[in-house]
Amino acid sequence: MQFFIGIVPPKEDRDRISSFQEKWNTLATEPHITVKAQSGLTDNLDWLEKIEACCCEVNCFNVQLGEPKLFGNEVLYLSVLSEKVKELHIALIDTVHSGGKLEKEYFERDLYVPHLTLGQKKHGLFHSELLRMKDEAKEVLTPFQQWKVECVRVYVQKQRGEKYLPYKDIFLKQTV
Q1: Helices (H), the chain
Q2: Is residue 100 classed exposed, middle or buried when 0-12, 13-18 and 19+ CB atoms within 10 A define those classes?
Q3: What is d(CA 146, CA 87) in angstroms, rounded to the nearest whole number?
Q4: In sequence order, what are the residues at sequence separation of 6 or more whose Cβ sits closer than 8 angstroms to the Cβ of residue 20?
Q5: In whole angstroms, how far apart are CA 50 and each of 79, 174, 175?
Q6: For 5, how many CA atoms within 13 A lie in the half-sphere containing its CB?
Q7: What is the pTM assigned to this prediction?
């Protein structure tokens, strides 16, 4: 099994993004912002309790999705407007130490760019399609409203090649 941890947009935004991705045949996992990639999240689940303890110490925060952008000519994504997402990412990385090599492989720490993936070349799209998709995303998806992040979602992939599915929601520290 493989796991990762993400932030899930509100249902209305998630539904709009999912519909957009279905139109382009790019919906793989429900729309999310990855805050901790697979490195260090092992089958034995020793890390889960540590992640839960970490999240209890992280205050809820606001986040907003921004303009569509590209990572080179490979990945189309929605930008994320919140420094707190990076802070949460670092807290989770520090909680589950996976080592420098894996952190580089999964674009963690200094390489981390918070984003919500809309489409990828590796999933069958050409660069020209990503460009058209980017234009359409800007027109039909943006702008987004800010929302309060109250929990993170752990996702699981039981067999290689299968979709990642929601596994568990972990709540952040509630502030008054």
Answers
A1: 11-23, 46-56, 83-95, 100-105, 127-140
A2: exposed
A3: 18
A4: 118, 136, 137, 140, 141
A5: 28, 18, 21
A6: 27
A7: 0.93
pLDDT, one tens digit per residue, over 70-124 is 999 999 999 999 999 999 999 999 999 766 677 777 778 888 999 999 999 887 8
The two three-digit tokens of residue 80, written as one number: 């994320």
Long-range contacts of residues 49-53, Cβ cutoff 8 Å, at least 24 apart: 50/95, 50/96, 51/5, 51/92, 51/95, 51/96, 51/154, 51/170, 52/170, 53/95
User: Tell me, what DSSP letter sits at residue 175?
Assistant: -
Task: Catalogue all structural domains in the chain, each as residue range(s) with its CATH number.
Answer: 2-171 (3.90.1140.10)
29 is written with which tokens?
């996992």
